[in-house]
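HOLO CASE FILE
Compound: adenosine monophosphate
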Amino acid sequence: MQFLRDAIRTIPDYPKPGIAFRDISTLLGNPRAFRRAVDELVQPYAGARVEKVAGIEARGFILGGAIAHQLSCGFVPIRKKGKLPHQTVSISYALEYGTDEMEIHVDAVTPGEKVILVDDLIATGGTATAAVQLLQRLGAEVVAACFVIDLPELKGRAKIEALGVPVRTLVAFEGH
Ligand code: AMP
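Model generated. Tokens follow.
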């Protein structure tokens, strides 16, 4: 996956000192890298029964939309509080400082539907854990959580696996 790794830009000290921001906009802007990332993420699920792809706002929408198209299934947005117009289910989750809330439409998935969760990156796993819990609360069977980037030092993968959800990642970076 060196090709994909090279397509990701690192911005040091963004959004604050000590954070190395892994910027996938360069990967998305590279036609071969974008296609390759989507193809690699869906490869284990091609031909499997999956009804929906759920993407986490905002970069998860870009990857998740492409993955849903590739798998010929529906797309479901998981958004920050107050953005979805219909009746929602919400969950609050811990950030480094304070908490945030994310929401899903109450009828976005039906009980028993098989769903793949998508975001660009897993760090501590707090965001993805909340998203999995929202989906499971609606009765979805979350068959996988897919990310282009893993930050293994932050041990997010184990949190998702502890919820019974297999994790697929393509590229790992050291540090935060
Ligand atoms: P976490 O909840 O700690 O797993 O953080 C994951 C979310 O924060 C994802 O939506 C990422 O897009 C974003 N994020 C966290 N750390 C980084 C980083 N170093 N570079 C880019 N995005 C990040």
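CASE NOTES: The radius of gyration is 15 Å. Residues 19-22, 56, 59, 119-128, 156, 176 surround adenosine monophosphate (CB under 6 Å).
CLOSED: yes
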